[in-house]
Structures are given as structure tokens and as C-alpha cells.
Amino acid sequence: MRVTSMAIALSLCCTAIPSAASAAGNLNMVCSADVVVCEHMTNIFSKAHPDIKVSMVRLSAGEAYARLRSEARNPRTDIWWAGTGDPHMQAAEEGLTQPYKSPLLDQQQDWAQKQAENSHYRTVGIYAGALGWGYNTKLLASKKLKEPKCWADLLDPSFKGEIQIANPNSSGTAYNTLATLVQIMGEDQAFDYLKKLNANISQYTKSGSAPVKSAARGETTVGIVFMHDAVAMEVDGFPIKTVAPCEGTGYEIGSMSIVKGARNLANAKVWYDWALSAEAQSHMKEAKSFQLPSNRNAEISEYAPRFENIKLIDYDFKTYGDSAKRKALLGRWDKEIGASAQ
Q1: Among 192, 195, 297, 298, which residue's Cβ finds the most Cβ atoms within 10 Å?
Q2: Domain spanning 2-127+254-300, CATH class
Q3: DSSP label at 208?
Q4: How much of the chain is helix, strand and coil, in % rounded to 5?
Q5: Closest Cα partner for 253 from 115, 138, 90?
Q6: Cut 0.90: pTM above it
Q7: Fold of 129-251+323-340
Q8: pLDDT (tens digit, 9 = 90+) per residue, 138-164?
Q9: What does DSSP say about strands 26-31 and 53-58: parallel, antiparallel, or unpaired?
């Protein structure tokens, strides 16, 4: 009787723990690109690797970072693909992601490899894109507003209630904007600027690309976003014009990270290597993703904003990817901007 009871207990114990074989066909991914891009790339990967079942959840970069922190003791995510590099760097610093050097690393642009080196190979750059905004040309004309060419132009009182930007707590785009302005102006001056800009903001959205989509629909005049998101609206036929700020602007290095303790590590590496390939990155433009790909041999869309045509700052990814720096800037934003946000 004791033997039977022990056998039953052992059987229950063993069936409660998934075997390596049962997990081999799964991949749990958080994607921080536009949902259309997330779905497109997932479908392309699934066709190339039909033996791997991908469960994809789309979250903004700030939300994805928060999820990794909340799951740290019991990770349910295997890989985090796309989204601005700052929160990927923060996750790396906090040990939420694990090192991996892909055999395709040497095919990547220098900025992508530097992202990997700075994080001790806990993340890697997969695309890059400059910060700017898009405005609705029809609304601008009908409301007799002056074309905003510079950061300073967005403070004009005539733009009251005409601008949208995301919340930097949830959006990597908005955090990149905050960090960019601090680097251009200095921290105190940047927060003075943001307080004045707040008077013209109609909504702080959850998603980084949402503001220009609202502008495309005629719900707001200006959306502060990465330029490639504004270009995507132009290509879709909406009356959107894309602007690179005259004073200079920052840029993102969209990144990818394998989660520490990933349950499906082997499959996470399969996605990782595939996503760094020229073939995979060449598919992104099919979903109207107009960033600059990290693989030197990947096809670049004719619509992608080129860095050589934009006045870029020397964005300090290491400093503004630091967890303490992020916490301090977001804390100040919450206190001085978020608390009085319209």
C-alpha cells in the first residue's frame, strides 16, 4: 500500500513539471513594435519554423520592462523583441535578461554591436530611428497654424490642445523624448520646456506611435513620435508631414533581449538569430516599418528617414539606459508634469 501511494505521489509530482520535450515547441514573446509589425514578423517566423508555436503579446517598451520586473522570480516571457533600447538597457543592468552572442552579431551595424557591448551582451540593437513628429497638413492649414519646424515652435500658444505625446512611464518613445530634451537643453531647462509644452498637450497616450495615428485621423494636429511612425502614416495616404526638429534630435536603437530564466531558451535563441538576419529584417518594410535595420545586408525601404539627412545629437544610451537615471527622470516628470497633466 505504501509503495502504491508513493508511486501515485511520484506520478503526480512528475506530471506537474513540464518536460523539456513538451516545452521545446513553444516561445513566449513580448513585442514592443507596432502591433502590425509584431503580427507580421511572428507570421513570417512561424512559416520558417512551423515546429515552434509563438505566443506573442504586444506591449509598449515601458510596459514590457515592467512585466519583466514583475516576472523576475518566475519568468513567463522568453524573449522581448523591439521597443526603444533604453528600457532594454535598464533590464540588462538589473539582471532581468541574460547574455547571448549571436553568430550573426558581426553582420550588424556598429551601433547595434555597441548596444550589445554596453549591455555585456544582454541586449542587441535590431533597428534605429530618429525622433521627431508628424503633423496633419489639412488641420494645420484650416486652423491657420504655423508649420512647427523646431522644438521651440511647439510652445507657441496657438498650438494649445493641438499636440499629443505618449506618457514616458509606459512609452519608450516618450522616455526617449524626455532624455533627448535633457541632453539638448540640460535637465532643468528641459523640464521648464516640458511644463510649457504641457499647456499645449491634449493627451498623453499609452503607446508611443498613437499620437501620430490620432493626427492622421484628424483628432489632433501634431503627434510627437519617431519619424518612421509618421512616415508610415504618409505612405498610407494620410495628410501627414514628417518633421526632424531644427535644433537637433535624439534617436532610438530598437533592441532585443532574452529573458533571464527563459523556459524556452533554445527557441528564444532561434528567434534571436533569425531576427538578426538580413532576410528577416528585409521583411519589416512589408508591414510599413520604416526604421533602419541593424543587419548591414538587409534591404532598406526607400521611405526610411536617413540619419545623414537629420541633425542628430550624440545620444548617450549608456547614461539614459541606467535604471537610477530612468527612475530619477520619471519621478521628476511625474511630480512636475504628470501631476498637472491635462
Answers
A1: 298
A2: alpha beta
A3: S
A4: 50, 20, 35
A5: 115
A6: no
A7: D-Maltodextrin-Binding Protein; domain 2 (3.40.190)
A8: 999 999 999 999 999 999 999 999 999
A9: parallel
